[in-house]
Amino acid sequence: MFAKIFEVSAATASKVMAAHMSRNFLLKLPSKVCSTMAPNIINARFSTSPPKASALPRLPVPPLKITLDRYLRSIKPFVNAEELKVTENLAAKFGSAGGVGEKLQKLLDERAKNTENWLADWWLNTAYLEFRAPVVVFSNPGLVFPRKEISSVKEQLSNASQVIAAALDFKVKLDSNEIAQEKMGPHPLDMSQYFKVLGTCRIPAEKRDKLRLPNDKDPAKHIVVVHNNQFFKVNVYGNHGGPISQGQILGQLKDCIHDSQEVAPPVGILTSEHRDNWAKAHKILSQSPQNKAVLDAIETCLFLVCIDGPPSPDERAAPNQFTSAALKMTHGGGSRGNSANRWFDKTIQVRKNQNLKKLQG
Phi, psi at residue 322, to the nearest 5°? Predict the structure, then answer.
């Protein structure tokens, strides 16, 4: 089952990207639906569940002296001898008995006793969610898979269907606790992040973004496919409750491509904006119930699959096509490239390019 979303006029899209949007901005959600059914192909083998984070040793708070010593070593390459001496004196005063450092250390120790990880929230908020620069380049990583010759749309979609099927197979193993426990030596590691990879989305908000995590009570059963800046909600689970077959996924992808031959206005490029600007646009979009439903479909999907068009002449002429592909994975190539064929707030986006031989993105 798939439904086409984000069909807007060029004039409206221009207003959106200029952050001068009206309250009547509307993203249409056509009612076209294709039902899918598949035989039960899942034979889950249950294993012992990984230990919960609460059962694992907590992140220790380093002793104050070690923290101060590390701080002084870290600044040494960037200051002169006089500045280093001043800083060493300040650090000694800060770490003295009864000083401010000792009092703060006690507060950290107390926090560590009452939280699973005393640093996690501070790190997430300060290093990521409060960072106001665009997530593109500044925050989001990107990688290129091993080389593979993809010379036609048919091969492109077939390969994409394989990747989707493999990701869904991983999801089945994850849900049935079949993923092997990771360890550092004999010590088990916290694996809760595995359950936040699929279905998670960053939501723009002024001053500090939010994270939309998967809903365990109502888990997502769909992905979103993007082609020519047009977004499609694709259901990838059948009536039996398990993932549909690779062949059925391929059929859905073909339908998406068939129904998106024209390039749509670049709504997706909004996700590459400064976070406060994108937050304002997102807030206005969400005021419409229909828009909110569209955003919900994208934000809750398991992951995005970005089907890019043929490479530009500049891409073909690039001296290092592997690097060129990595750039497209990281930022999409800008407004004249495929940056609008993305939703950069999603944790996982899979990009499939076409007609770029011996290279798979």
Answer: -65, -45
Q: How many CA atoms lie within 13 A of 170 on its CB side?
A: 12
Q: Count of residues for the chain?
A: 361
Q: Residue for token digits 């990595």? A: 326
Residues 267 and 230: beta-carbon distance below 8 Å: no
Please indicate whether residue 42 or residue 92 has the higher confidence score (pLDDT): 92
157's tokens: 């979609």
Return d(Cα 315, Cα 65) in angstroms, integer: 53
Q: How far is CA 211 from the centre of its chain?
A: 10
For 275, half-sphere exposure in the C-beta direction (CA atoms, 13 angstrom radius) is 21
| Torsion from C-alpha of 284, 286, 287, 291, nearest 10 degrees | 110
Alpha-carbon span 203 to 346, nearest angstrom:
9
Report the first-to-last Cα separation within the chain, whole angstroms.
26
Task: Decide: residue 2, CB within 10 A, 0-12 exposed, 13-18 middle, 19+ buried.
Answer: buried
Helices 246-258 and 153-175 pack at an angle, to 10 degrees, of: 130
Domains and CATH numbers, the chain: 2-40+135-352 (3.30.559.70), 59-114 (no CATH)
Tokens of 112: 């560590």
Amino acid (1-letter code) at residue 201: C
Which of 17-26, 38-47, 273-282 is predicted least confidently? 38-47
**88-95, long-range: CB < 8 A, 24+ apart:** 94/68, 95/64, 95/65, 95/68
Q: What is the pLDDT of residue 147?
A: 74
Only one residue has tokens 């899942």, namely 42
Sequence-separated (6 or more) residues with CB below 8 Å from residue 51: 181, 188
150 confidence band (pLDDT: 50, 70, 90): confident
75: confidence class by pLDDT, cuts 50, 70, 90:
very high
Residue 45 has, within 13 A of its CA and on its CB side, a CA count of 3
Name the one residue in this structure whose structure tokens are 């970005």. Answer: 306
Whether 359 shows a pLDDT value over 50: the answer reads: no
Question: Which class for 146: exposed (0-12), middle (13-18), buried (19 or more C-beta within 10 A)?
Answer: exposed
Between residues 36 and 93, the one the model is more confident about: 93
